[in-house]
Specification:
This protein has 133 residues and is an all-alpha fold. The chain folds into 2 domains: 5-84, 434 Repressor (Amino-terminal Domain); 98-133. It has 8 helices and no strands. Helix 1 packs across helix 3 and helix 2 packs across helix 3. It starts with a helix and ends with a helix. The relative contact order is 0.10.
């Protein structure tokens, strides 16, 4: 497997964020439940800081999942990331989990005019379907 240490830190953070959101926790609510500051959790989620085994157990317990489940999610995501051609249905999720994806979504979410959003969607569809994209 050709995954760098930083890539794994990012992947661990992505899985932590996915599980946190799927369990209905905000950064603040997980911080309060686990005793880990929301800033530190955010650093884990972005891959800025590595998640130690002791913190992994603390956070997974606070999220109501086992460390084994968490690590299986990481392993599954590594498989998907290493063979994206086998998982085209996950392309949107991979994009959303990138910094660029989050910036694009935040920018689009700030636009309140439906006509503008439809125009952007049409533009993106045109670009996607062009032969040179």
């Amino acid at each position: 497997m050709n995954t760098s240490t930083h890539d794994i830190d990012l992947l661990v953070g992505t899985v932590l964020r996915q599980i946190r959101l799927s369990q209905g926790f905000t950064l603040q609510s997980l911080a309060e439940r686990s005793g880990v500051t929301y800033q530190q959790i955010q650093k884990y989620e972005t891959g800025a800081n590595r998640l130690s085994v002791s913190r992994l157990f603390l956070l997974t317990n606070s999220l109501g999942v086992t460390a084994a489940h968490f690590l299986q999610q990481v392993q599954d995501q590594m498989e998907i990331d290493s063979h994206p051609e086998k998982h085209p249905e996950r392309a949107e999720q991979r994009f959303v989990n990138t910094e660029t994806g989050r910036k694009v979504i935040a920018s689009l979410a700030a636009i309140e005019d439906d006509a503008v959003l439809k125009s952007i969607a049409n533009l993106l569809a045109t670009i996607r379907n062009s032969p040179k994209h």
